Amino acid sequence: MTETTLYVIQQLINGLTIGSTYALIAIGYTMVYGIIGMINFAHGEIYMIGTYVTFIVIAGLMGMGMVSLPLILVVALLLAVIIASTYGWTVERVAYRPLRGSNRLIPLISAIGMSIFLQNYVVLSQGSRDVALPPQISGGWTFGDPSLFEVSFSYMQLIIWVATFVAMGGLTLFISRSRMGRACRACSEDLGMTNLLGIDTNKIIALTFVIGAALAAVAGLLLGLYYGVVNPFVGFIAGLKAFTAAVLGGIGSIPGAMLGGLILGVTEAMTSAFFPSEYKDVVSFSLLVLILLFRPSGLLGKPEVEKV
Amino acid sequence: MTKKFYNAVFAAGIALVLACLMIGVKLNTEGTQLTVTGATTEQWAWIGLGIAIVFLSQLFAGQIDRAFGSLPKPKIGHLLPEEKKMAILKPWLFAALVVGLLVWPFMVSRGAVDLATLTLIYVMLGLGLNIVVGLAGLLDLGFVAFYAVGAYTYALLSQYFGLSFWACLPISAGLAALFGFLLGFPVLRLRGDYLAIVTLGFGEIIRILLNNWTNLTGGPNGISGIAKPTLFGLEFTRRAKEEGNMTFHEFMGIDYSSSYKVIFLYLIAVILMLFVVYVINRLMRMPIGRAWEALRDDEIACRSLGLNRTAIKLSAFTLGASTAGFAGSFFAARQGFISPESFIFIESAIILAIVVLGGMGSQVGVILAAIVLTILPELAREFSEYRMLLFGLVMVLMMRWRPEGLVPMKRPHLELKQQ
Is the entire prediction scored with pTM above 0.80? Predict the structure, then answer.
């Protein structure tokens, strides 16, 4: 294999890693949009809060003298999911529920306000500087010709792949098999009708916010461990990227969000492989514009029909 | 009552969890290790206070909502003279206001005039975004991109080609409009919320480009030493920069004072602002302005009446962008230095907050909101770190309690009086 091929393989691995976390965050956008047709702008901040909680728990438990890393990670995962879900639920309750049924612009503005609020809440409580966590999981496999280019696949990347796979599988099972999942699907089909059939739609909407926030927290934990740094502003760009992923796959469609995340991650990695890496954001946003132009319903989405 | 009580306890519990995990513990970096410290007693007291507020507000939620609902909306109608008298009075009032605006800077301190100039820039930006968001109902979250285009247009043209401020003003507005057109043409066919995201992405793209195109824009270092505007070739410096040019104080035969420049910039801002107000005010009464609002209120009805929705939206988008370009080039001239730091998303959010707070579509409201939102942070400097937090909170609360803004838009209309 030539040097370029190995390099491309390496970027593919990196891209799939980042892409799977985008997919996790994108689920939150796509589920909320599928049910109430609204962009949950504060979703990126929930992801950021998930990372902060992870860091706090890891640092706290280590400070208390706990040494077993798997145990620490499990506790961190549980707490991050619980706290982020609480944030997600509260955001829905405070900023979106009172506005249901009003003009489309109004919940969107409220959502932007919420996003600014949460970001600055974290700035004020945790400071605006980068917080770094020393790498917890190191090591991995390498292959390829050492004289040309060595492709490395770290344990952390494997963990991200596996965790994403498990989370996505769990979500798919939940949506397709459970009673609540069926109620979710019914809500995205026709909210009013579902309500008439005796399902508490408010509860289901809150549930989708909680599921979205929980998955964002999982992404926050994984990316936090992968990069090892966080600051209060990471949620903004990550949210934008995940939204792009959701639109790419077809907003409202859960498999679409997964696919969109992976495609976006790989596109970004390939861009930064051959161009200066600052331009990877430019490429992903341009991708968003292009998709919206030529296929507004996304890769797996259903075209929307406007009715009077 | 018991249900309400449980509800309040639940809300307080949630508030406790949310407060503890962010305010209660703080991450610190010690060397390479990450440590966690608990909050101080004072912070815990604040958390306790916050939770108590949540508890009480939930317990008495019904009463509070009723109180807010029955709060008399500010009615100034009866204070004003009758409509006929008003029609005669209006031009005089307006003239008095303009004279006041022009005379006022000569009597106050330099800092106040400078702040007023900044406020006027935000007024212009608010009015520009008001066309897009308030009148046409298109949520534009990348408005600051057009502001940046205007600012960089002037800075670059003056640096590379030595063009004057007055020549660049229309060019900046035109170029920003062109950017608006190029962005709007493809994306305006999309539904509203997609537009918000695309414009947000566009704002980021412009900022990233400005940051990385170091050869042209100077990257993160920005462009400094941008020429100040001149009055028919008269400069406002101590000595003329170019040979053969005169300075203002030499021409007038008075002593040099640095406040002339500040006042001059302020006066330019006033004139530009009045121009923008006038143009938009006229546009609102033209068929195109009516079409913007009609499209905002009911798109499907408009389309079935034969209005070209893309053209109408595009005109609003382009005009809004050109206003931002206008304000941008003045901003560059006033600062003398620009960098991508001035054109971040927060700036867009502030302008949006101005429009939302003032009342979408209402010119008077937007002007008042711009004044309030630029002067309040200056007055409350010790709270400056809470500024953005409060902006966010205000946006959420306004949408909940008063989505039409502080000074809702009033449109000229006739009401049939019941006999």
Answer: yes
